[in-house]
Records
---
Amino acid sequence: MHAVAHVMEMQGRHAEGIAWVRRHEPDWSTTNNFRFHLYWHRGLYHLERHEFDEVLAIYDNYVASDIASDMYLDVCNAASLLWRLEMHGVDVGDRWKDLTEVSLRHVDDHELVFVSLHYLMALLKGGEPEAAARLAARMQDYSNAATAQGRVSGRVGTGTAAALTALARGDAGAAVDALLPIRYELWCMGGSHAQRDLFEEMLVSAAVRARPRLARALLAERTAAKPRSAWSWRRYAAALRAEGQAAAADAAERRAAELLATA
């Protein structure tokens, strides 16, 4: 189920993905809490279709329904989905609160850089700047450790943490400066293509605001790789318009509208 869900996400088969996950839901929805990750995948399909009420319902009823149990994958699912929703301009209300409470227990963790970055997202969004700064500082310290995760922290962890912190304070340019040099190295933190794609989305969103010419290049690449992503086409249109490419921007907007109309 999980493997097929990934294939459909990467191929932009959003309606098929929803149907696939729903059709087999009786078979997987009574297993352990990995089931919440499959609901997360369904949320990504709905997000690409701009069905935001459905995404919020999936978040509330499934993805974040057992956050109090403090399972790291649940926090990763929830934090990444909320951040994505906010990048789409959706008001998520006070949903960061429960994630923040769990993340405060993990400020000093030295386990997985990928997971710590999701704790950092919750701390930044949940109004805990001191704890967030401490986690980022601990990640910096850990980057000197002669361990696998220490090397990952030095290679991509500290830069991604710096980008998250910059985005939280509204500094899109600093976020671009932190993420751009490491974008081809992010694979080493682990997670799936779908999970790490959040950091690519952060980069292109920040670039649209701070470096439109760079954003245009990044989004030309992204729309070629993910041609059925309406979100990407809309960001591409914004970058093109900022660069004075009105006709191309209009075409990108039309492509986004077509994708949503046929989703």
---
Amino acid sequence: MTQALTKPVTYEEFINWFPNDGKRYELHDGVIVEMAPPTGDHEKVVGFLARKITIEYDRMDLPYTIPKTAFVRTPSALSVYSPDVLLLNLDNIDNIDLEPLWKKESTVIHSASVPLVVEVVSTNWRDDYHKKFADYEEMGIPEFWIADYKGLGGKKFVGDPKQPTFSVCQLVDDEYQVTKFTGNDLIISPTFPQLNLTAQQVFNAALPR
């Protein structure tokens, strides 16, 4: 559901408006968007990836955390996203000079605070592959995972015929370089070089046990 408006909604207006109604909202170029409720399979993949990421940063003794709910604000301040998995650097978010919006509004604005962001693809796949890809790239977030466990994206993203695809987007010279993983490919992550995880293990997280 998209709210039609005569003028763009600002970040401040969005935060002040945000209702406590149990629904998930984002701000896309000044337009408030109600996100579709996630499916159970989607949430299983989100939980699986959050667990695997937590194991890695614990192993490396890094000052990271994954919040239950938090926002990433783009440089224009007209887009605000709530990623499926948001990895945050505690040293940065606890510094009010770097992240002045964090303590009161659970919002980060600097790429240095976000080592990794993850989106698990659902029916609104264009948001992940186009809009969020561009905005996370512009912000300078160093690594972005797109977990398309159903192969919903366009053919240029998941192949022809379509197949489940895990994309790792690494920021190189201010642009994302994308590496795609399918089947039993071992996922290569610059943030977590010891990650021992295949694309198929991610996709299988959505299946019944």
---
Amino acid sequence: MEKGDNHKALPQPTVRRYPVYLRAIRAKRARGESLVSSAALAAELGLDPVLVRKDLAMSGVPGRPRLGWSAQALETALAAAIGWNHPAEAALVGAGSLGKALMGYGGFREQGLSIAVAFDSNPDVAGHEFHGVKILPATELKRKVRRLSLRLGILTVPAHVAQACADALVEAGIRGIWNFAPVRLSLPDGVVVQNMDLAQSLAVLSHSIR
């Protein structure tokens, strides 16, 4: 298997753990550490050492017995596996409180994401700029997304308009949607959707602390 193709075969649970490993590895490098031990990484993150060793082995970076992995090589390989080595530009739909919070989050650049443009149907919002991101009227969505050749969309709109907004994004060429709207979207095959249901997360948290 070619190293550049590793991400295609990664199990989803491994993909979800890679960002956690990346943060820890970057912190180690910042402290001047050049090697990563799966046992030490597992202890630091509270994970099973066997699981961590298998995850790191899937990166394609060879480890050295009793020494571990090169921190620099692992950082590069893990970032490439989840697509963080080539920054992706996204279109955000819904420049309300949540949308603006995402536009203002500086950590996305470390994770290979840049919000190129935002859209909103509110005339009091459209036409303004927030954290360097231009907010355009929703009527310009298809034209602008096509012109910028964007492939990633972020939905932070109310539930009752989420499907229509998602359909417009797909028609404009979007192939992946990060959905923060509290609704399940019905989209064509080949369009990937990652749902972020804040109500579900809060319910789990509230139940756990009772």
---
Amino acid sequence: MIIIRKASQKDAKALLGLIKGLAIYEGQLQYLKTDLDQITESGFSNVQPQKFEAIIAEHKGVLIGYVTYMWNYSIWNGSTYMAIDDLFVCKPFRGNNIGQKLMQHAKDICVSNNIKLIKWEVESNNEKAIRFYKKLGAQIHNKSIVKWHTT
């Protein structure tokens, strides 16, 4: 049985393992800079507001997927929205609607808080993810991501 729930501090180490799993899957491990202390402090400390929150999928006590998100504000819409950072499901569990359940849980959080928009990024060549997001009912907008490193 798969349990979908909000992550807690006791999940920090396993969540970091999943984040590393995503970085490996995307061939980006060399760019992963966060560590357990940062994950714990940023997402699970008593300091409010948290810098991020997470929803996890658990199977027999083992974390097998997650979605991380932050709350942001749209000046154009004049409202808060959920900004999803990552969605990841471990390979052996893909194709079992776990990603859909994680995203639905994120949507349910928004609905219960009267949040009307969720935004996230997807690589333009990630056709599988784009099909998945369209199946959810999401709209894909072509827009470039700009990064400006200050150091």
